[in-house]
Amino acid sequence: MIKLDYTIPSPEERNDLVHDIISDIGEDNLNHKALEIMADYLVFCMEKEEKRKRKILTDNRMTTVNKRESSLEGIAAKLESGEDGLYKLITNDKNVILTPSTCIEKRDVDEIPMLRQLRETIFGLEKKTAEGKDAFRLKRMIIELRQDQYIIKNSFRRPIYFLRANRGSQVIDWDSDTGYENANGDYVNVSENRLDLTNYLHVSAVLCNYTLLTQKTADEFNSETRWMLKSLEDIIEDTLPIKYPMYYDIVIWKIDGKSNLEIQDLLDLKYGTTHSQEYISSLFRNKIPKVIAEAVKEQWVIWFYSNKAKGEWKTCTRCGETKLAHNRFFSKNKTAKSGFYSICKICRNSK
């Protein structure tokens, strides 16, 4: 009888074992059934190794990926303009299935007896140990039982399926000023309903809806949103082209309506860099807004200590630039007369 060790993970080691078995038994003594068993023993391990190295998407894996990518939460999270982007997606492609992502919560276990019993069975099986084919069967059984959890939950508490996705009805008055200036001269934003360009989340929202906001305020000359957009444009032109030219191009391409796939090719052509589409979205939604928000804070500090309060200025002993004696430009030094180091932060960081 052929004894195969199914705990061996390496295809090379399994191959050596098969060769040893053939040498002991002899090729003439092997029947068709024995050869088929040894072939499956080798091929199954090689397929697992191949899938692990090349990240091959099997049918089961593709089902999981497609479910995850087509869930309502997954699509909304990946789109630059959030729910508005989801609405545009629905209008352009009505074949997208919106399946809500579900998970087993503590409330489900407490309220559904069958689910509680099933989970106890799963936990009991996970504590057991097995070898060879028994280990494979045990793992397969646990996977199938975990899948049954969601069938039981859906039979008791069905998920909400969206037959039609529409835009949200919440209206925010961006022109309402709900902040105040504290004793230190810092602006404190009381309500998130006020558009604040020092908040990178607000900058991200404006960039994602820039075209729509520009069109709506084109004829509203007294709108604060219109002049906020003009200020944002000036800050972008003063900051990104010189320090972050690639970020500047991404903003322009995004506003022009180019897809991440097109931007990916443009970046490769112009800068010779290859970035994933997810990374491009992350830059546009997070990194670039943070850079812009920091530039706004810097301009605001300079304006405040130039017009509202009397500020002192220092000349960096390394680069020779005269800058505001503020923690944003110089690191604090209690031993120095001015309270700051003589070298600015940019020079210190480069050193």
Secondary structure layout:
Elements: H1 11-25, H2 32-54, H3 59-69, H4 72-78, H5 82-92, H6 106-111, H7 113-126, H8 133-156, E1 179-181, E2 187-189, H9 200-208, H10 210-216, H11 224-243, H12 245-255, H13 260-271, H14 277-308, E3 313-315, E4 322-324, H15 345-350
Antiparallel strand pairs: 1-2, 3-4
Provide a quick synopsis of the model:
The protein has 351 residues and is mainly α. It is 59% helix and 3% strand. It contains 15 helices and four strands.
Give the neighbour order of strands across the main sheet. 1-2
What amount of the residues lies in strands? under 5%
Number of helices: 15
Please count the beta strands (DSSP E, at least 2 residues each): 4
- Give the N-terminus to C-terminus distance in angstroms: 72 Å
Poorly predicted regions are 165-181
| Proportion of helical residues | 55-70%
**Biggest sheet character:** 2 strands, antiparallel
- Please compute the radius of gyration using only Cα atoms: 31 Å
> What's the helix-strand series?
HHHHHHHHEEHHHHHHEEH
Global mean pLDDT: 77
What's the overall geometry? elongated
**Helix vs. strand class:** mainly alpha
